[in-house]
Amino acid sequence: MNDSNFPGRIRLGMVGGGEGAFIGAVHRIAARLDDRFELVAGALSSRPDAARRSGLALGLAPDRVYADYAEMARAEAARTDGIEAVSIVTPNHMHAPVARAFLEAGIHVICDKPVTTNSADARMLRDLARERGRLFAVTHNYSAYPMVRHARKMVRDGLLGEIRVVNVRYAQDWLAEPIEQDGQKQAAWRTDPARAGGGAIGDIGTHAWQLADTIVGQPVEALAAQLNSFVPGRAVDDDVQVLLRYGGGARGMLWASQVAPGHANDLRIGVYGSRGSLQWAQETPDDLLWTPLGEPTRIVRRGTAAANEAAARVSRIPGGHPEGYLEAFAALYGEVAAHLLAARDGRPAPPDVEFPTIEDGLRAVEFIEAVQASGFAGGAWTALTSGT
Amino acid sequence: MNDSNFPGRIRLGMVGGGEGAFIGAVHRIAARLDDRFELVAGALSSRPDAARRSGLALGLAPDRVYADYAEMARAEAARTDGIEAVSIVTPNHMHAPVARAFLEAGIHVICDKPVTTNSADARMLRDLARERGRLFAVTHNYSAYPMVRHARKMVRDGLLGEIRVVNVRYAQDWLAEPIEQDGQKQAAWRTDPARAGGGAIGDIGTHAWQLADTIVGQPVEALAAQLNSFVPGRAVDDDVQVLLRYGGGARGMLWASQVAPGHANDLRIGVYGSRGSLQWAQETPDDLLWTPLGEPTRIVRRGTAAANEAAARVSRIPGGHPEGYLEAFAALYGEVAAHLLAARDGRPAPPDVEFPTIEDGLRAVEFIEAVQASGFAGGAWTALTSGT
Amino acid sequence: MNDSNFPGRIRLGMVGGGEGAFIGAVHRIAARLDDRFELVAGALSSRPDAARRSGLALGLAPDRVYADYAEMARAEAARTDGIEAVSIVTPNHMHAPVARAFLEAGIHVICDKPVTTNSADARMLRDLARERGRLFAVTHNYSAYPMVRHARKMVRDGLLGEIRVVNVRYAQDWLAEPIEQDGQKQAAWRTDPARAGGGAIGDIGTHAWQLADTIVGQPVEALAAQLNSFVPGRAVDDDVQVLLRYGGGARGMLWASQVAPGHANDLRIGVYGSRGSLQWAQETPDDLLWTPLGEPTRIVRRGTAAANEAAARVSRIPGGHPEGYLEAFAALYGEVAAHLLAARDGRPAPPDVEFPTIEDGLRAVEFIEAVQASGFAGGAWTALTSGT
Amino acid sequence: MNDSNFPGRIRLGMVGGGEGAFIGAVHRIAARLDDRFELVAGALSSRPDAARRSGLALGLAPDRVYADYAEMARAEAARTDGIEAVSIVTPNHMHAPVARAFLEAGIHVICDKPVTTNSADARMLRDLARERGRLFAVTHNYSAYPMVRHARKMVRDGLLGEIRVVNVRYAQDWLAEPIEQDGQKQAAWRTDPARAGGGAIGDIGTHAWQLADTIVGQPVEALAAQLNSFVPGRAVDDDVQVLLRYGGGARGMLWASQVAPGHANDLRIGVYGSRGSLQWAQETPDDLLWTPLGEPTRIVRRGTAAANEAAARVSRIPGGHPEGYLEAFAALYGEVAAHLLAARDGRPAPPDVEFPTIEDGLRAVEFIEAVQASGFAGGAWTALTSGT
Question: Where is the GFO/IDH/MocA-like oxidoreductase domain (chains A, B, C, D) (predicted)?
């Protein structure tokens, strides 16, 4: 029998992600892919029947299938083989209370983004995680793509020189029509201000901001935004356009849209420095375009000799064998596992392990709030003091 | 002997474009490509020796090689076989006086862009052209690409529904270093405020604006801009980022940069409507991506059955035989020729002939001025009342 | 505790795939990704120490870590909780004896390709699998990509009309230099005729053949081949070029190369019929180009409404969230699991489940042998009677 | 008046290319684009009325509009301002008699391809051109693309090492249906064995061969071909697939098809050597992919610092301003002009001037004949002794 106490794996629980959910299944695959987690408990739905069906379908032991997250936190904390970490994949407005319950029970947290629907909650969680000494990872999953890691390291190593321009976008088309009015489940909560805390800016704009943030490493100091709601009857923004002033001198543009026909999940970035540029697109994630100033553009590919060690660390198979969204998500889980396995043994985390934390999650929520503030003020320039 | 009075061709003169110039040679090829113009006179340089050498090298008759544009206007107007139109390809600050001289001599004008270095001059030229009843074309050449014509017609025919988002950029890298300080001729005048009237915004931002303008057909009503000058010692902007509010409800972003390594001449646009989208990139101009909402993206190609009549009108050879920059520039000249040949015969211009005029040139200069005003005011939103 | 007897999962063993192996790790991820297999036993290496280290590192119970595959077959067959299926991921020459041992023990087989190093062995395995009534899957993994399934269905549904031309290639560059002489493990056995049974034709040409075979559905009746060995000192072919005559009237070309710089794993195919064409490339697997004759090319994308049900069955996440090599490999494992879970319950396999079997594996080996025969005969046309 | 005797231009005549022709108009634009030719005479059609209308529409003097090519050759040879060169753009079967007439009149010849419909005629023309000391250029126009020149030079300079594999194709779709039976003029003569001398192999396969030939510089020594005629009722091949053995050790594949939906004019080549590879596609001709072995692929672009001098010589405008089919055709005309202008002055041709000659044209016809011989013999390997 395959032992769930095998020391090579972290015992994991999940809140949310039951029948019909999208991101819960993604987290489960991500946790499983590299075999560093074993899902052993869950409160997969707030509806008891659905919670039970979902848990059993995943092979959970019946006594570890919960309908209530607070009960789950208490019960698992009391077991000797209780979960070590919990993945929170509920709609956004539930992240804060759930995360709080598990942190208070001494359980590490892996939480979907945006981490909360307001910065006060995010600050509360940050303080609580610090106080309890628990890990709090936020799944800004796009930052774990190998070639994003490659890009980040190139910028840090100065290979692009001084960064001048950042151009990032995240374009989708799935909300180009008012499908939330027809009961589409994903659309319904993601366009509900109460449950989502914002529209395109929170759902995907935050990913775009974070992608730029992780690569460029400069804080945004001010921004001006157009917050658009194009689809009739929609209660949140479905398109947002932002000018950015970075603290290190870079200037940027960010576009996030869910009403852009022809773009399924088109997150892409260009970073332009005094010595060269990088271009990367999430839909073809294994390739990074690098142009050293005055030379031909190079197609730097994951899994080849040209990929640097930061990329190689989170890569599994050779170049030309495409890795995708699930692999990157799994890489983020792998980073968390490396940290937790080390912590369990009292070792320091391996060097170079990195993942977005509640600090980054807080800054993301502050960015969302600044964009909303600017948008509601007719696009006025709005200062941003991050992470305070 | 091939007769320069062959009625199928317009007798053309040129001011500027002598030895070492880039855009003058482009205009000459464009005029010649479809065999509708015959270059017969020129003041190709303000330096008499250079003017003479340049004219003779082009096969001009010695008595029609001029060193002074004003003398050329007078002399050609007096000849029975004098030029019918003049192409003005000098640095920007000379456009206005040269155009004025030829208009006053009753000669049609084809002028490079931006048409003037300030809107007052553009307004003066507009009024003068109206008063004298002369044609005044401005070579916003990118609007003559066949698939831009195709796109324009699709939008006008309502195939994209209501336009929501416009995303246009024009990125280059040739000014990423201060080459103007090393005497590079093109760089020198284009980064000199006195001769250019602006930097990236005037040189290429104006093309980006015009491309969006010709396709979308909505006026920009307000904008907010970051006007950046990244290269040390540079006297003009070399990068500009703009948020746009269109009069018809669309919202847009424009990025023009001359310091973006990896982009040679990357003018591209995405237009997103309620029923579908279009994407076009100047560096692969024969293909237009069209996504009808909810359907796969189609690659619509110039020279095939899928290209509409607006594209076919300005296309020469079958799909897969790439046409490029010179062909599009020639298409613009072809439109002017069609107009002038009809006018010469007292016929109305053929239906569907179109080219940017001094009205468009004026609006382009007003756009430049608004971007500069916003940029100098820290990115403040600036209203734009065009073409008045 | 997570029960390895959870009925939703197949109990799996593995032979080969220990330390330093590539494809063994791929099979394990593929088996795990969709949570339909639990790896519970293994003979991961023929060296006892390596077998033990590898097994324990994967969390196998010590008593189910074997050094000898024959002992493993016997021991597992004797357990009530013994493995239901075995994955064989050894070098090619060991496939036949290992598969035979497990079939004779009544255990289902999942075997890497080429299934054997000669067709006599493949025929023996086919007969044995039939006789014992065991499933025998061959991991021609590329056939499980969603858009390959889409393509296959389109051809079967007649949407391309009569198939005229098939153009398939599989180009790599990792053997462009004699790295096998420097002890690179993968290169060493793959270029050893005794262990590999052939070079590029067996390692990747067989994938190319199978990709065409699964989409086009016509048998190859004759072929002419150039079997090249470009790298000095290499004992097997590293490049092969083949003309193909299909039984249904199509004509084709196949190129497989391991000495083509610039190609990492560039498997791609074009299929041209009287009513349209399809083009697909493994390095960007989510997109399929479909050109209905006389119309623009469409980019049909996995995970969107345009993907047909054959694609949707083996797809997990929405379009624009790229799936890759591991997902396709997992899809093949998922098909096998669906078949085995049904068989375990005495149900028929779900409709539409499909995976390459020993019949396909045999035909692949016959193809390899025909290419070798033609190549050794100076490229002579060679008839091919498949699957007999 | 613009003097047709301007010494900077060659006086040119044309045979064929009247109303409704495609390639004649292309030759005229190509001759005109760089202003090194002046078209002054023509026998544009064998039908007198059409010849007259076509000539006058082009602005030719009435006395230099001919209905008979032989008369034109005589009359022009007798004029002091007679044509120096003639462009022959008739259907293929007329190339030989027309070229002969002009060579015998002492006039240089520029002839479309394939230069003749059989190698005996080509040999006759070669001998005649030698004997009369006249230039005989064959418009294998694709060899004049700047990045083809770049590629050719790289191979010659040894930057790719020893060439191993050549993969070339030319795929079109315009003959996927029997449009010749509906009177389409281009289709009618190109699918008529008497006028075309072959089908896809002659019309486009010859271009593919020549592209490989000019870059690789090794003679084909033997080949095996499938010569297919897929469209019902078609009298010539519409698809051909060839294995190639080069004299220098390279092995190759060539595919030419006019029944491949989705390909408009998709001529492309990959050349793989021991030190790296090149890939080029005619539909995006400004970019050449260069992969030095073991390094990332580089996108080498025309008009940038990375393009070598062989590319720069035949390039006009900066990178990112796309040049296309007409520019490359014009570059070939420019090479001929450079040669003729030097010859007129008694100077040697400038170094590096190169264009396909009757020697190349003869070898192309020999290649066609060998492919046809192999195809008619069921794909048998056929030796090829070129240029004898």
Answer: 148-278
Q: What is the residue-level pLDDT of chain A in tens, covering all 388 positions?
A: 344 457 889 999 999 999 878 899 999 999 999 999 999 999 999 999 999 999 999 999 999 999 999 999 999 999 999 999 999 999 999 999 999 999 999 999 999 999 999 999 999 999 999 999 999 999 999 999 999 999 999 999 999 999 999 999 999 999 999 999 888 878 888 888 888 778 999 999 999 999 999 999 999 999 999 999 999 999 999 999 999 999 999 999 999 999 999 999 999 999 999 999 999 999 999 999 999 999 999 999 999 999 999 999 999 999 999 999 999 999 999 999 999 999 999 999 888 999 999 999 999 999 999 999 999 999 999 999 865 6
Q: Give the class (CATH, top level) of A146-315+357-376.
A: alpha beta
- Chain-centroid distance of CA B254 in Å reads 17
Chain C residue numbers with beta carbons less than 8 Å from the beta carbon of A326 are 33, 316-317, 321, 323, 326-327
Instruction: Verify whether the Cβ–Cβ distance A300 to D296 is below 8 Å.
Output: yes
Give the sheet arrangement for strand B108-111, strand by strand.
B37-43, B10-15, B85-88, B108-111, B136-138
pTM: 0.97
**Closest-CA distance of chain C to residue D142, Å:** 23
Residue type, C182: D
How far apart CA A265 and CA A343 sit, in angstroms, is 36
- Beta strands in chain B, from DSSP E residues, in sequence order: 10-15, 37-43, 85-88, 108-111, 136-138, 163-171, 220-228, 239-246, 251-257, 266-273, 276-281, 287-292, 297-301, 382-383
CA C21/CA C358 separation, integer angstroms: 24
The superfamily in CATH containing domain C10-141 is NAD(P)-binding Rossmann-like Domain (3.40.50.720)
Token pair, residue D187, equals: 């289709």
Q: Check C290 against B296: CB less than 8 A apart.
A: yes
What does the domain layout of chain D look like in residue ranges?
Answer: 10-141, 146-317+357-376
CA distance D145 to chain C (A): 22
pLDDT digits (tens, 9 = 90+) for C49-99: 999 999 999 999 999 999 999 999 999 999 999 999 999 999 999 999 999
Length of chain D: 388
Residue-wise pLDDT for B329-343, tens only, equals 999 999 999 999 999
| C248-284 per-position pLDDT tens digit | 999 999 999 999 999 999 999 999 999 999 999 999 9
Tell me if B299 and C301 make a contact (CB, 8 A cut-off).
Answer: no
Residues contacting B374, CB < 8 A, separation 6+: B223, B224, B225, B227, B242, B380, B381, B382
CATH architecture classification, D146-317+357-376: 2-Layer Sandwich (3.30)
What one-letter code names the amino acid at C243?
A: L
Strands B251-257 and B287-292: unpaired
Least CB–CB distance from A259: residue in B263, B272, B380: B272
Q: Which value does ipTM take for this structure?
A: 0.95
The amino acid at residue A278 is: L
Contact A164 B279 (CB under 8 A): no
| Site from C147, C297, C302 to mutate, B interface, most B CB atoms within 10 angstroms | C297
CB contact under 8 A, C245 and D255: no
User: D331 to chain C, minimum CA–CA distance in Å?
Assistant: 29
- Spell out which residues of chain C touch residue B296, defining contact as CB-CB under 8 Å: 290, 298-301, 304, 306
Q: Where are the alpha helices (DSSP H) in D242-289?
A: none
Collect all residues from C whose CB is shorter than 8 A from any CB in B: 290, 294-301, 304-306
- Domain C145-315+357-376: homologous superfamily in CATH: Dihydrodipicolinate Reductase; domain 2 (3.30.360.10)
CA distances from D369 to A375, B285, C251, D237, D360 (A): 71, 38, 21, 13, 14
Q: Which of A263, A317, A322 is closest, CB to CB, to C283?
A: A322
